[in-house]
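Escalation from tier 1.

The customer reports that the assembly of two entities below gives different structure tokens on two consecutive runs. Tier 1 could not reproduce it. I'm attaching the input and our single run for tier 2 to review.
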Amino acid sequence: MRVNVTVNGEHRRADNVWEGESLLYVLRERLGLPGSKNACEQGECGSCTVYLDGVPACACLVAAGQAEGREVVTVEGLASGDELDPVQESFVERGAVQCGFCTPGLLVAAHDLIERVPDPSDVEIREALAGNLCRCTGYEKILDAVRDAAAKKAVR
Amino acid sequence: MSAPARSPQELHDTIAGGIGESPLRPDGTLKVRGEFAYSSDLWHEDMLWGATLRSPHPHARIVRLDVSRALAQPGVHAVLTHEDVPGENVYGLKYQDTPALAADLVRYQGEPVAILAADHPEIARQALKEIVVEYDVLEPITDPERAAHDDTLPKLHAGGNLVRHQRIVKGDPAATADVVVSGVYEIGMQDQAFLGPESGLAVPAEDGGVDLYLATQWLHVDQRQTAKALGLPLEKVRLTLSGVGGAFGGREDLSMQIHSCMLALRTGRPVKMSYNRLESFFGHVHRHPAKMYYEHGATRDGKLVYVRAKMYFDGGAYASKTPVVVGNGTTLSVGPYDVPNAHIEGWGVYTNNPTCGAMRGLGAVQPTYAYESQMDKLASALDLDPAELRIRNALSEGSTVVTGQVVDFPAPVAELVQRLRDLPLPPEPAGERDIRELPGGASNTTHGEGVVRGVGYGVTIKNISYAEGLDDYSTARVRLEVLGGEAVAMVHTAAAEVGQGLVTLQQQIARTELGLTRVSVHPADTSVGDAGSSSASRQTYVTGGAVRNACRAVAEAVYARLGVPAEGMSLTGGKVVAADGAVVADLAELLGDSAIEETREFHHRKTYPLDPETGQGDAHVQYGFSAHRAVVDVDVDLGLVKVVQLDCAQDVGKAMNPDAVVAQIQGGSAQGLGLAVMEEILVRDGKVRNPSFTDYLIPTILDMPSMHIDVLERPDPHAPYGVRGVGEPPTISATPAIANAIRAATGLELPRVPIRPEHITGV
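Tier 1 run:
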């Protein structure tokens, strides 16, 4: 099967896609975008979170065919060229990145939260990110980073 | 063949900051852009996908193994069994007892039996189903205590079912005391649950060897074991570290290393293996479950007189790190306390349960939960404040631990507890509360009725680095050269960055020692000497020491080239500076086109084996100490727990990167919280019931409370820069602090972790 999808603003085509492949597999293995991560591949850890038509989704739970004609933004699409998105900047600056495997999914989820709720409370941040597992950080620095990114975005 | 299209990156990002500062990670920007190449991201044109057939039975004889149908599938390029292992079909970290592929017997559910390579992961998965294996299913051995003592059980290995027995006797083992408390404690099987799955890409080389790009904790030990199984000399099996998505001990044992190389060598094509989450649960070793019998005796004024303990560690099917778990478990068995008399026995055994090996807090997690439970029980029997009892018995510099070793470095145990006791407690709940902050959270199970609060302490002692006589060392190569008119340094080690921040630290040390701004880190590989494992909280100490030594050798070479005595000279801001501050030379000019490169090792001071009868000996290099205080809310009607606050005080000797130290403490504490209230691999009759992130629960951002972290710096005079290993202690002391807080809230005995709702409600 052939899948046409807009990824990070660019039209992309994948040929010879097996019907059982996920959007995550197509992104990672066929389109050369490994940023979305394959940690559990059953929608539990959030490491593969991408925007699908503007709404965060676990790319592992989306069949490749379901993405036909739709718009996907991955972690690779958050920065504008060399300029990092504030949420990316804050994750680095606040030490919210250790092994970093959960980071791409957390970045998309945090980016979405700040778009919806520009000044989230701690409880709102916790609720919004509860679907993203992190095994390294203990989450406190992730909270710091999201607070910081929200403040940065408010200023810009 | 060429290197993979996506391969490990050199880390050039230079972010100012030396020792004691908190520069940002050089790999941070790559990671937030999604451009950092983890092992599962590796990719090579023309690569095949490897897959593993695993035993469904915990204990069975293999009667027939036929791969012909699988091999005939279109898109399948090789199907291999134990008969295809080119070298010795056995490996292991301490004992050589683990087959690369099972031959006649399987000893645990999930043991690899056959491997294959195919064009697409789905073709590989389907082809696995075409491999025919006939098993003669045997009764599994699942009770570790029986396995230790019952000689009538079948022997899982030629030497029997005992991996290690260690006794420790101090003072009068039969001492008596006024007040005695005892208890039997159990701890479930925890999983490292690193997020990045076991993955590697093996690329066959023209010299008949193989290049393996992978996630691991110790490149050289993988190289040695893999080369032996492949029947190749070491230099033909070259390993390069790719991005590692967490480790926590779970990557110390081999997983796909031998298998991916066998498939690459057989097919002549690059082969990538990447486990899915289910396979990851079967593909790595877990934390040892344990059963521990403890008795503490004390005087009426609360001084410990004796500790007697028996502990059983379930090692599962293969030895892995079980010998070390028994060694650590027994030598750390009385905790950070002065105990004049002790009689301790520990057994590590083979069973048909999943293999257990290294996990953060190795061998210390189990006894700490038990002795800290006992300390609270003793405080209650003495009508003493639990923190006060701990302070009265705290180990200090000059104390003798249970093995007779004298603590000849700072041991501020009492101070850690005192500092936690002095911290303010969160306000008692009053009025309407946000349900998201109550036990059960947004599930709306309570609005505060039935919720009681408790406070508990946990304190631990953990050995740092490898012990019991091992020559534990690391190697670093440092190159100083001129690039773009500026003197820059490149640090090259084989030490694994697994997320903890070692790459940042290597830059910090080189910047400090060489007085430079620009320092980059070469990808870790086996073309430089052994760095040992990223485990046992040892890398800052040992690889940090090696980088320091190599930098100092480079500096000496600079002075030698200048022809000036090293005495009083230093390197600062790219200049060679004399003691009086005068600039002697510009480093870039001095170097010109001729780089300086030096390789040095760092060996920590010697340790010694334990006496087999008495367990006495200077077994450990250094100890780390940490303490937690937990505040919990418990819904006693439903058995749900919310950890409200978790505070930690830890001595780190020297905070090389203060922000990273705090981050390690926060992350470690989260794993300790997980073990206290949710994390367990459920095993019944040798079979795993919950191998997924749906059923094996790790703490989310809703489960982790905010933490106050108090970092003490009491330099260890024997360690480079005075450092003390940081990574493990916080994981260890968090668990008993939370368990004790739940006991304080409920008044229940709770002799097992994780504490589940039914333990609290009794239903």
